[in-house]
Design a protein that fits this description.
By secondary structure, the chain is mainly α. It contains 15 helices and no strands. The protein is globular and about 60 Å long. The termini are far apart.
C-alpha cells in the first residue's frame, strides 16, 4: 500500500510540474536543489489530499511514509513529509525527538527544509516538552550547519509569543560568532522575533554584543525596533 501511495503522489507531482517553476525554485538556494517544479500552493493541496487517505493510520506508519518521501531528496516530497509530520503534533511523544533529530542529520540540506521542519514540527515538540530545549543548545556545537541553524529557528515562533527568552539569549550567545552566513541569519531572525515581546531585553543584548556581532545578525535582530533604537544599535 505504501509503495502505491508514494507512486500516486509522485505521479501527481510530476503532472503538476513546469520548467518555469523549477527554474524559479532553484534561484532561492545556493545549494543544488532537486525538485519537480511544482508551485507551493499545489504541493499543499496534494499533501492535504493524500493525508486524508492515510489519516486513519498510526503515527508510526505515517512517519514511515514521511521518511520514504524524505529519502528521495526531492524538495516537494520533503515538503509533503514535513506537512504530514506537523499535522500529527497533538500526538508527539518524547521519543519522537530522536526521530526528528535523525531526520535533520540525514535529510535537511537547505535552509527551506530546515525552516519548514523546525519552525513548525520541532517547535511544537519543544513547546510540548520544554525540557528538550537543552538538546537545541547541544546542536549549536554541531559541525553540521543545519543543526546550528535549527537550534535558532526552532525557537522563532515560540520567541515571537514571548516564550523561552532565557534560552533564546543562551543560543544566541553560543552562535554569536558563527562563521556560517545562514546560521548568522538564523539566530538574528530568532532575536528579531523575540524582540516583539521583549524589546528591551533584546535591545540590551544587541547593544552589549554589537562590537562583535556579525552585521548580518545585527541587522536581522533590530529589524522590528523603532527607528531611534535601530540607529543606536547601528552606531559604531
Amino acid at each position: 500500500m505504501h509503495d502505491d501511495l508514494i507512486s500516486e503522489i509522485r505521479a501527481e507531482l510530476a503532472r503538476n510540474a513546469d520548467e518555469k517553476t523549477k527554474e524559479s525554485s532553484a534561484r532561492f538556494f545556493k545549494e543544488e536543489i532537486n525538485c519537480y517544479g511544482v508551485k507551493a500552493a499545489t504541493v499543499i493541496r496534494i499533501a492535504d489530499k493524500y493525508f486524508r487517505q492515510i489519516g486513519g493510520q498510526s503515527k508510526q506508519e505515517i512517519f514511515s511514509l514521511c521518511e520514504h518521501l524524505l529519502g528521495s531528496d526531492i524538495f516537494e516530497e520533503s515538503s509533503i513529509a514535513f506537512d504530514w509530520v506537523y499535522r500529527l503534533r497533538k500526538y508527539y511523544e518524547p521519543g519522537d525527538f530522536e526521530i526528528f533529530e535523525g531526520w535533520i542529520g540525514k535529510y535537511v540540506n537547505n535552509w527551506a527544509k530546515c525552516d519548514t521542519f523546525c519552525n513548525h514540527s520541532v517547535a511544537s515538540f519543544i513547546e510540548t516538552y520544554p525540557d528538550y530545549v537543552s538538546r537545541l543548545k547541544q546542536w549549536t556545537g554541531s559541525e553540521n550547519r543545519w543543526f546550528r541553524r535549527a537550534a535558532a529557528v526552532t525557537l522563532v515562533l515560540p520567541a515571537r509569543n514571548g516564550k523561552f527568552l532565557k534560552d533564546v539569549l543562551e543560543i544566541a550567545d553560543r552562535l554569536l560568532m558563527d562563521e556560517d552566513d545562514l546560521v548568522r541569519k538564523g539566530y538574528g531572525w530568532m532575536l528579531k522575533e523575540a524582540s516583539k515581546a521583549h524589546q528591551r531585553e533584546i535591545f540590551e543584548y544587541v547593544i552589549k554584543n554589537k562590537g562583535i556581532m556579525p552585521r548580518t545578525s545585527l541587522r536581522y535582530a533590530i529589524e522590528k525596533f523603532p527607528e531611534d533604537l535601530r540607529k543606536k544599535a547601528m552606531e559604531k
